Amino acid sequence: MRKSIILAAVAVLWIVPSGAWFLVPMAYYDGQDSLTIYGALGFGDTTKYCAAELRYAPPSEALRAELTLRLPLMGEGTLINARYTKATTPDPRKPSIYLADEDTTLENLTEKVEEKFVKLSQSYKAGISSDWGIYFKLADGRYISDYKLSQYGGWEQSPETTRATYISGGLWYGHDDRGGSFDPEKGYYFNISVGGTYLVQDTLDADYVDATTRSGKLGLDLFVEQRVYTSTNNLPIEIPLLTAHAPTVMAVRTAVGYQGVKFAQGGAFRAGDLDFFRGVPPRKLSGYAFYLLAIDFRICPVKRMYTPVTVLHKIAPSLVPDARADIQITPFVDIGRIYGSAVDKQIYSYGGGLALKFSEVLIPRFDVAYCPQFGHLTTYFSIRHPF
């Protein structure tokens, strides 16, 4: 089991006339990459939003950079998501291999991963709270392993560098009455997207996890998701020593996805990220189809709590605003299944954490998730709720 502890956390909210700017530095230890340094810089409100996030773990030299940009450039808005990852992780294609020449079995093998991903989504008005649009995705991955498939069958110890590049695109339709908030007290969100993925290049000798042959270059993509938010003020939760009544919001997410082709690595559905099967070891499960039920509770026992920024505000009130935050307790549970993975059965995970709500778009949040099937404990830190 991985042990995870939080070392330090500070959030700074800076208000300027053109919008709400923020800087969020963070450091934590997650057991896989050891000490991880985090930083986020951006601005945002309910109409426009930009955030650049960087994670770096010096002991393992793992690096992850993300960019989220939502601006009213055309139609109802343009959304850009980009991500770069460089790390050493478990090799999902080699959970266990046998070397005939050495008459030995190896487990828990790793590989060096370098992945790039960018998605562009353009939306147009379809109704009062409905939009439609087009999307385009490009994913590229490079994977370096010390072992490769032998031409005589089985594995052999020899360096192998593989690469896969995918292009995806299609149409989507959605309904969203959350008003741009990342933390709505009530609301409904629905999205369906239909498109296709084309495999530009693939030098891998496996499709996903435990597959051993390629299955095609062009596949259908189908993704359906809905999110429901509701307040439980009529059933307040009592938290001793904090408050007699803690307003609570319950968020329920259901999602299904299907791919017509069993793509490898970055082209497949993969578990373990912040918004997709939390608690599963990174890159451990992937496949061509999935269903997911996620339930989050956001309990707010304290509103407008003083923060370290308040001290700076007392020193320089004209330069630093009095940025206070609501404390949120965030228990959750994920239940679902990924088809085609090494663990082809229903999985579940649970966990919780703390969040500081500075604004509707800035909610630094630290969570710990546990997946019983793998006996795995994972830490997550972000500046917004998973959904």
Distance between the termini: 27 Å
Full CATH superfamily name: membrane protein fhac: a member of the omp85/tpsb transporter family
SSE order, one letter for each helix or strand: EEEEEEEEEEEEEEEEEEEEHEEEEE
**What best-fitting shape do the alpha-carbon axes yield?**
globular
Q: Looking at CATH, which topology would you report?
A: Porin
* Count of helical regions: 1
CATH architecture tag: Beta Barrel
**Can you count the beta strands?**
25
Question: Fraction of residues in helices?
Answer: under 10%
Keywords, please?
387 residues, two-stranded antiparallel ribbon, 1 helix, 61% strand
Descriptive report:
There is one protein chain. The strands form four sheets. The protein has a 19-stranded antiparallel β-sheet that branches. By secondary structure, it is mainly β. The longest helix is centred in the last third of the chain and has 8 residues, at 308-315. The protein is 2% helix and 61% strand. The protein contains one helix and 25 strands. The relative contact order is 0.13. The protein has one helix spanning 308-315, and strands at 5-9, 12-16, 19-29, 35-44, 49-57, 62-71, 77-90, 96-99, 104-107, 110-125, 130-149, 155-176, 187-202, 218-231, 237-239, 243-246, 248-259, 269-270, 286-287, 289-305, 325-329, 332-339, 347-357, 365-371, 376-382. The chain starts with a strand and ends in a 5-residue tail after the last strand. It has a single domain, classed as membrane protein fhac: a member of the omp85/tpsb transporter family (Porin).
